[in-house]
Amino acid sequence: MRDVSDVAETPQPLLLDDLMPWSVAPLRLGRSWVMGPDPASLRARWDAVTRAEGPEREALFAPTRQRTPHTSVAALPGQRTATTRFAGEAGRCPEPVRVLHGAFDEQWLIPDHRLIDTARPELWRVADPGHQLFAVEQGYVPGAAGPALLASALLPDGRSPAGRPGRIRPLYRRPGGQEPNLAPGLTAHLAARYGHAVAPKDVLAWALAAALPSPAGPVVPLPADPRVWLSGVGAGHRLLAVLVRGAQGADRPRLPGGQRPYVRAATPPRPDSLAYDGAESALLLGATGRISPVPVEAWNFEVGGVRVLERWFEERTAEPTGALEAIGPRGWPQEWNSELLELVTVLALYAQAAAGRPEPGSYDVLGRADLHAAGVLPVPGSARRPASVLDHHEEGPGGQFALL
């Protein structure tokens, strides 16, 4: 992906921040043991902490300024977890939830607010598996390869493999696909310019196809030509279908017959390396593991200059950083092979769909003056804040209802 500085643009290019004004910073866990690649390990870590007492529990918990075992905190929206102080916790582990870790890695998280320094409750409040989509900005690294913007149906942690993490922008400000997180009047203005209806998801699709990296966040040039818009939106919807991995009615990612990767030789219990055999289009795990065919586009796929497959492998094989992090699978679970096969498929299909994106600088764009004249810009301050939530209760510290 070329840097926006390499592209002839308007003096003040449109940013994603102009189009999707409400954004949330990435999650900050504070302790790495609450997230991992398999849920069974998270439950075992919880049990190890809750069986410990006194100073041992304190040490295993890994206190920070934001969280200690004695911190009083509200439950995360939508999660049935205790709000009593963790120091007295003796119950079962809350059911881990699937989240997007970084760019493409789906992992598991214990959804207990007492364990997470900064969980961003406003994101959990609008999470909705049937409707919500999250645009996830990727950390800016000058000259680095990879997309500037990705999307997820899972709640993302917003971490970037390299560079400063970007922002998370929900497509809707309320559950149920209600109140699009778009600049007021944007879709109506674009519909008038292009001569047909523009849905909120179309704006996200265009952003996925056209976003360019910049230090200020992704730049999203809007085309003046309706034909360019339609072509880019089509490419963006294909990218989105790959990224959501079967959620919200989309098909699971699947390469055509003959191109689908398979495990050709069993992965050793503890593979210590990951390599690529270009001549055989094979992914090599340790001394004996082998997956093929793996397109070179999947192996070379980078985000922020970091190879996605290598980062995924490191997340599962790196030396643990603490006693609880050391609690994990004894070998290489079969599920990880399945997840790796899907990740290869996702990266290959994404690379294919990305070939249809509009070429930067090849089309005329709508300037900021156009959106100012239409009253779309400047975005009102209220659109940059979370929507008020008045239709449900949430449990505050100690079992009291939280006022929202």
Write up what this structure looks like.
42% of the residues are buried. With 404 residues, the chain is of the alpha+beta class. The protein has helices at 16-19, 39-51, 54-61, 121-126, 186-194, 200-210, 226-243, 296-299, 308-317, 334-354, 368-373; strands at residues 35-36, 97-101, 105-109, 134-137, 149-152, 168-170, 172-174, 178-180, 262-265, 274-277, 282-285, 289-292, 302-303, 306-307, 394-395, 401-402. It folds into two domains: 4-253 and 358-402, no CATH class; 262-347, no CATH class. It contains eleven helices and 16 strands. The strands form six sheets. Strands 9-12-11-10 form a four-stranded antiparallel beta sheet, with no helix packed on it. A three-stranded antiparallel beta sheet has the order 1-3-2. Residues 5-11 have low confidence and may be disordered.
Q: Return the structural class.
A: alpha+beta
Biggest β-sheet strands, sense, barrel: 4 strands, antiparallel
Strand content: 5-15%
Mean pLDDT: 93
Strand order, sheet with most strands: 9-12-11-10
Classify the helix fraction into a percent range. 25-40%
Count of individual beta strands: 16
Question: Helical stretch count?
Answer: 11
Distance between the termini: 41 Å
Coarse morphology? globular
Listing every helix as H and every strand as E from the N terminus to the C terminus, the arrangement reads HEHHEEHEEEEEHHHEEEEHEEHHHEE
Rg, alpha carbons: 22 Å
Number of domains: 2
Low-confidence stretches: 5-11
